[in-house]
Amino acid sequence: MQPYQSLGSKGVNALASQLMLSLFPINTSFFKLQINDGEIANIPELTPEVRSEIDLNLSKMERIVMQQISESSDRVQLTVAMKHLIVTGNTLVFAGKKALKVYPLDRYVVDRDGEGTVLEIITKEVVDRSLLPAEFQKQDKQPNAVGEDGPKLGVAYSSKHNDAEVYTCVKLVDGQHRWHQECDGKLIPGSKSTSPLKHTPWLPLRFNVVGGTGSESYGRGRVEEFFGDLTSLNALTRAMVEGSAAAAKVVFMVSPSATTKPQSLAKAHTGSIIQGRAEDVSVVQVGKTADFATVQRMIADLTQRISDAFLILNVRQSERTTATEVNQTRMELDRQLSGIYGALTVELLTPYLYRKLHLLQRNKLLPSLPKGLVMPTVVAGLGGVGRGEDRAALVEFMQTVGQAMGPEALAQFIDPTEFLKRLAAASGIDTLNLVKSPETMAEEAQQAQQAGLTQSLVGQAGQLAKSPVGEQLLQQANDGQEAGPPPQAGADL
């Protein structure tokens, strides 16, 4: 079907970008390595200074993981995966040792149990035979003769002689994902592999989970939910385009009994003079202006509905549009995505994080985390929406108190240090060595007090020196220095 509008494409790109910025924020980590407070309570020798040092080291480990992600092509592949999710509702991501690979819906099948656990995955790839082992370099079997019903069962055949269809079969066995690859109905040597379920590289994603806990193996996309509006908009836009083309066509009509010759009219150029009467010539008019106006209003209504559905940011255009209004619009978009964030956090962010940590630890780029003591926790996606709500509530509370009770109440009842820490936590900012501790502030206040006292004494001494008493004492001191020391007994005169 030929599209007559690009709003659907714009919506897919906008929603994919919104998901990527929320799930994988730029210049910040989408996860935190947090210490289990329950386990820490059993270690009495862990002082606050040691706890602070542990937090600093965990923060360094987070930066190592994010740097590795930034240097790879993961964001590019994940953006492609988001677009497939929005359009088809399903995609498969393979987190390999070097890079991610995205399988569209027509390249894999998946089977889940009633709880949504993946039981089996089968993928299909078309690769060049030169990349396969020697025994698969040449295709032994040929397709059936003309008139028969296609290739024989189990024979992978491609129209290109050098291409081969490779199938990967993944099964859940004893809490592990085990897989192997086949080509031409035979097992590819060295293709067998296993992975624990917690660190599995196979991530079948769904946009909307259907059936509560996952009774369906596949999900539904955003396009499917608003398919009616998209098709209606396409049909109306097509009518407007074709109608506008018909209205733009210029056709002159000449009366059969007119003295004006049609040939003279057709051959006349701009500024030419011909013989005839104006009433003999008329122009064909469509006369559908009112109908076009109705179609335009319907198109505007559908455009607004689709823009809202795909979270296209439409800020009110006016001279008084403030930054607060824009932020409120963005928060409203995040609230609409909260349900989608929940599914993607479970099926994408958490498995992807554990897979990355597993690969980095196996390559000795990260130390092994103490089991049960350090917990990797995803803070993006749904957690980011919660932090945004906390930040808005905290700021609103402070503004309400300041307006209702005055600035004096804020200074009297609010702890500035605690407020800064909570605001930083709501914004996802680490306060380590950023916010001054109460001890540091008390020490700085004491030093400032001593400096003020010294300055006051110096000022008082200066004022005393300028007074009459001070001038008299200063004059006596100078006279004593000019008279010299008194003569000693027995000295020669």
Could you explain how this protein is built, in words?
Among the domains are: 95-217, no CATH class; 381-435; 439-479. The chain contains 15 helices and 13 strands. It has helices spanning 7-23, 37-40, 48-71, 74-88, 222-225, 227-248, 262-267, 289-309, 323-336, 338-362, 382-405, 407-413, 416-426, 438-466, 468-483; strands at residues 31-35, 90-95, 100-103, 108-112, 118-128, 163-173, 176-183, 186-187, 193-196, 202-206, 252-254, 281-283, 374-378. Strands 4, 5, 6, 7, 8 and 9 form a six-stranded antiparallel beta sheet that branches. Strands 3-2-10 form a three-stranded antiparallel beta sheet, with helices on one face. It has a two-stranded antiparallel sheet with strand order 1-13. A hairpin with a 5-residue loop joins β4 (108-112) and β5. The protein is flat and about 135 Å long. The termini are far apart.
Q: What's the overall geometry?
A: flat
The class by helix and strand makeup works out as alpha+beta
Count of individual helical segments: 15
Helix-strand pattern:
HEHHHEEEEEEEEEHHEHEHHHEHHHHH
Query: What is the percent of helical residues?
Result: 40-55%
Largest sheet: 6 strands, antiparallel
The count of DSSP E runs of length 2 or more, i.e. the number of strands, is 13
Estimate the strand proportion.
5-15%
Low-confidence stretches: 143-159
Distance between the termini: 129 Å
Mean pLDDT: 80
Rounded Rg: 39 Å
